[in-house]
Amino acid sequence: MPSHANQSVLVLGLGSSGRAACLMLKAHGARVTAVDSADTPALRETAAQLAAGGVRVELGATIPPVGHFDLAVLSPGVPSTLRLVKDLAAREVPLISELELGYQHTVCLNIAITGTNGKTTTTELVERALTHSHKHTLAAGNIGTPVCDIVGRTRELDYLTVEVSSFQLEGIQHFRPSVAVLLNITPDHLDRYASMADYVRTKARLFENQQPFDWAIVQSEALAQLRSLGCKVPSKTLTFSANNRRADIWMDRSLLISRIEGWEGPLLDMERTKLRGQHNAENLMAALAVGRVLRLPLELVVESLCSYQPGEHRCELVAEVHGVKFINDSKATNLDAVAKALRSMPASRPGEPNVWLIAGGRDKGFDFHDIGPLLAHRVREAFLVGETRAKLRAAWSLFTPCAVKDTLIEAVFGAAEKAEPGDVVLLSPACSSFDQFQDYRQRGEVFRQAVKQWARATDGGASGTGPISGGAPKPASPH
User: Fold this and answer.
1) Chain centroid to CA 322
2) pLDDT (tens digit, 9 = 90+) per residue, 300-310?
3) Rounded CA gap, 295 and 290, in Å?
4) Domains in the chain, start-ordered, CATH in brackets?
5) Arithmetic mean of pLDDT, 54-60
6) Would you give the DSSP letter of residue 417?
7) H or E stretch including 443?
C-alpha cells in the first residue's frame, strides 16, 4: 500500500470520484490541490467543503497550477486529450485514475465488471449473489460509490464488487481483479476514442495485470474482438453467450445451460426471474459464472437471481395508462442499448410497429443509420429532443416518421396523444443526457413526472385497462 504522506497530489475533476479522492488523500497525509475546468454553483459548494478540510481548489482551470506534483489523479470524466492532462504528462507527472488510487488502498480481493451495456445490472446481481451466499461485499465504482470512499471498509469484506467503465480503465497501473467480467463490446464513447479499436483495447485493460490463477469471465463475441486485436487474457477463462451455443454457458430458449466440466446441465430458467431479453440472459450468465469460480452454492445464487428486481431507468415500467405502457430506459445511452430495449418490448399487432420512441441528447459519435432497419420494424414514430435531434432525424426519417420537440415533456405528451391501447411509449435516448440534464437519472425522473402528469390529465391515472379514445379527453401538449 503506497504512502501519500507529505506528497503533493493534484486531483483533476470534482465530481463524486474527484471529491472522494481528495478526502482519502487528505486522510493519508497528502497535500492536495483539486482543479476543475467548470465553475458551477454545485462545484462551488463542493469546493467550499473541500477547502474547509485543507484542500486547495481552483475552478475554471484550463492549465495545471504552478508547482511540483508527485502524482495526479484523474476523475473518469476527464479525457486524456484535455490540455490540463497533456501539460501534466509533458511535465512527467504520474497520472492515475481514481479507480487505481482506491485499488491501491483496498485490502480485499475484488471482482470487476465492465462492458458497454449491462454493467450496473450485473454488478447488482453479483453483489446480491455474494450477500445471499453469506459473503461480505460492497458494490462500488461506476455504479455510484467511488472506490476511494470505501477503502477503509474493505478490511471487513470478502470481496469488493466493482463496476468499471472504460474511462476508469484508461488510468490504471496495477489494478488487478481476481475475477474480471467482460459483458460485451459495442460502439460507444466514439466522441472520446479515436476508433472502435481504441475503445476495445481500453476495455481489454481489465485483464492486463491478471495472473494465471485469476479468472476472466467473458462474452464469447467480446473475446473474439479482443483476440482479433491481439489483446491477451492471461487468466483462466470462462465464456458465455446468448447466441453462441459453443460457449461455456449458453442459452436454449429460456434455459441457461452449462457445459463446464463437473457443472453440466441447466442452471436457471429465466422465466423464474424478473429479467427479460437476451442481454439480461447474458447478465445472469455472468453472475452464475462468478458464483461458480468463487464456489458459491448454486442453489443460493439462483435464489438471489430469481428475487432480483431490475433497477430504475433500465426498461422500467413507469405506468400503463389506458392500455399504453410507458417505459423509462433513460440509461440507454448508446445504439446497442436502444436495440436491445426495442427487441424486448411487447408486440401488440403481429407485423406492425407499436413503439413510440423518444430519443436524443448529446452526441457520442455514433452512426445512427445502423439501427434503421430495426426502427422500421418496431417504431411507429420517433420523437427527438436535445442537441442531436437534427442528426437523428436525418438518419432515421428514412426508416420511421420523426418529430422534433423542444423538451422531453413535449415529447412524452406528443407520443402519448398518438398512442393506442397495446402501444408502448419508450424513452431510450441513444445519447448522453448532459445537454439538458444533470445525468440519466434526472432525465428518467423528468420522464416519470411527465407520465404522471399525462395520467392525471387524462383523468384515469395508471391502469391496465380502458382505451384512450372514448374515455377521458386528452390534454393539450405543453408548449
Assistant:
1) 32
2) 999 999 999 88
3) 8
4) 8-93 (3.40.50.720), 100-306 (3.40.1190.10), 316-457 (3.90.190.20)
5) 95
6) H
7) helix 440-457
